[in-house]
Design goal:
- By secondary structure, the chain is α/β, with parallel strands linked by helices.
- It folds into three domains: 194 residues, no CATH class; 180 residues, no CATH class; 73 residues, DNA Binding (I), subunit A (Orthogonal Bundle), CATH 1.10.30.
- The chain is 40% helix and 14% strand.
- It contains 18 helices and 14 strands.
- The strands form five sheets. Strands 1-2-8-4-5-3 form a six-stranded mixed β-sheet. A two-stranded antiparallel sheet has the order 6-7.
- Helix 1 links the parallel strand 1 and strand 2.
- The radius of gyration is 30 Å and the shape is elongated.
- The protein starts with 13 loop residues before the first strand and ends with a helix.
- The N terminus is likely disordered.
Length: 509
């Protein structure tokens, strides 16, 4: 795709928001319109879903709804209280300092215009939040009003006794560029290559700007929003160093949150390594970004997130592993260690059937400590994947490239071969169900009764059940063999779940 952006399309037309309905729908090519918009107009567009007109102008609010929700490409960090108050001071004083230009994409849905903030989300929501009564001004809030100094300290929007100041907020104008007929792809390219090309955007911020099913999944899963806790793996807590200096931290990870999509990045790398082969590593952030774009624009995720069930299942498994890791080695639950922990465990699970998380994590860090001994390394013939001398094990965790990951796996594979049981492996019988002939034979042996409650049971209502659950593994006796078969009802089979037959019998008495 060639990057042709609406800001380069001529001619542009400067207009007032009251003219918005007049200039829309003039064609289907991407267009940009330059103008200004008042905070009052934006406020009414945000809250006004009824029939009243916006600020007395000719666009009914029901026909122009302002969407101020974070896009996947926008930074996670919300405006601080101090930053919001600085924005309010700029508005109240209405001097030479101005709020920077905002950018709005106009979409049409079911006959309604939806105004989507592409850039300027924090600049707009600060005064809107104040008008909605969501925060008050600090006690030391002093503004200059011409030659006067005015104290608005501690004021709530409803307690501003001078109506002039409320009007001043609503009448404050911000420069705005409006965009019509942009595709998602054009919008994300606009954000990356035009609106933020002078900013220091992290690779993950660029990836999240690629609008698509996978970007949305990553953002919604790793970055909880109010009313939606997301996945429990990404639970956050408030750490109270001092009451005035609270800090949000991850519950299960030791990954610092600086508002730059750190957990989005972790999940993105997890998905990439899972989809492209864990041991191949991440060659570069550019390669990962290009894959992220391609799989959503041209690849299997173009129209649907076909692997959602697989990804959800992987995250549930990761939760069990990292939760165990947090209890055993909390300081090492950073990005690199957790990715290796989860993805190597995932390999073992797929190969053998399942693992005990705590046993596996204990063994992992035993290996970690053992192979941090340089004297041990010097007594072996082990090298890195690229053939160079093997360093202390901990130094391999400084990068996610192929050499680092393959070298780590070489040591883990060596220890696994020496003592596979110590890794908490639960090897399951590959045969999952009993055949009908065995079920019928066992049903007759049980005198056509349910094994657990001894009640009469029709064969068409009977199911074959593992007395020792298959999930317990072959070594524990969870085999799909006649000796481990009992016939029961579907109700008892469901209630028994992963209980041993002995334990379920006791619960039936």
């Amino acid at each position: 795709m060639s990057n042709t952006y609406p800001t380069q399309i001529n001619p542009t037309k400067v207009f007032d928001p009251s003219q918005l309905a007049e200039v829309l729908g003039q064609g289907d090519t991407p267009r940009a319109f330059n103008g200004t918009v008042s905070i009052g107009w934006l406020w009414n567009a945000k809250i006004g879903m009824g029939d009243r007109e916006i600020s007395g102008e000719n666009i009914p609010a029901k026909n122009a709804l302002l969407d101020t929700q974070n896009r996947t490409y926008q930074r996670e960090k919300v405006a601080t209280y101090s930053w919001q108050c600085d924005i309010m001071k700029t508005i109240f004083e209405n001097g030479f300092k101005r709020i920077p230009e905002i950018h709005i994409r106009v979409l049409k849905s079911n006959g309604l215009y939806v105004l989507e903030l592409v850039d300027g989300q924090q600049r707009v929501t600060s005064p809107l939040d104040f008008l909605n009564g969501e925060f008050i001004l600090p006690k030391d809030f002093i503004i200059k009003d011409g030659d006067m100094t005015v104290d608005l300290g501690g004021k709530h929007c409803l307690s501003l006794d001078v109506q002039n100041y409320m009007d001043r907020i609503k009448d404050y104008n911000i420069k705005c560029t409006w965009y019509e007929n942009l595709t998602d792809e054009q919008t994300s390219d606009l954000f990356i290559d035009v609106l933020n090309n002078v900013n220091s955007m992290k690779p993950q911020e660029i990836r999240n700007a690629v609008i698509g099913k996978l970007s949305t999944y990553t953002c919604d899963t790793a970055r909880p929003v109010e009313g939606d806790p997301g996945h429990p793996l990404f639970e956050r807590q408030i750490k109270n160093y001092r009451k005035a200096n609270e800090k949000e931290v991850m519950k299960w990870f030791s990954i610092a949150l600086n508002g730059r999509m750190e957990m989005d990045e972790w999940l993105t790398e997890l998905i990439y390594l899972k989809k492209n082969g864990f041991r191949h590593g991440i060659k570069s952030q550019t390669e990962l970004t290009n894959w992220w774009k391609d799989i959503q624009r041209n690849g299997e995720y173009k129209n649907d997130l076909t692997d959602k069930k697989m990804l959800d299942k992987l995250l549930n498994f990761a939760y069990d592993i990292i939760k165990a890791g947090k209890a055993i080695q909390p300081k090492k639950m950073n990005s690199m260690h957790t990715l290796i922990l989860v993805l190597y465990a995932d390999e073992l699970k797929n190969k053998y059937g399942d693992i005990h998380p705590a046993e596996y994590v204990n063994k992992f860090f035993e290996v970690y400590k053992k192979w941090n001994d340089i004297a041990l390394i010097q007594r072996t013939d082990k090298t890195q994947a690229n053939g160079s001398m093997l360093p202390e094990f901990s130094k391999l965790f400084n990068g996610k490239n192929q050499n680092a990951i393959q070298s780590i796996c070489t040591i883990l594979d060596h220890e696994l071969k020496e003592d596979p049981d110590s890794f908490g492996i639960i090897e399951r019988d590959p045969k999952a169900t009993f055949n009908s002939d065995d079920n019928y034979k066992k049903w007759l042996e049980q005198d056509k009764k349910d094994f657990f409650d001894n009640l009469p049971l029709l064969f068409e209502d009977a199911v074959g059940d593992h007395y020792i659950p298959r999930s317990w593994g072959i070594k524990a006796g969870g085999v799909t063999e006649y000796s481990n078969l009992v016939i029961t009802s579907s109700v008892n089979n469901r209630k028994k779940g992963n209980m041993h037959g002995d334990d379920y019998l006791k619960s039936c008495r």
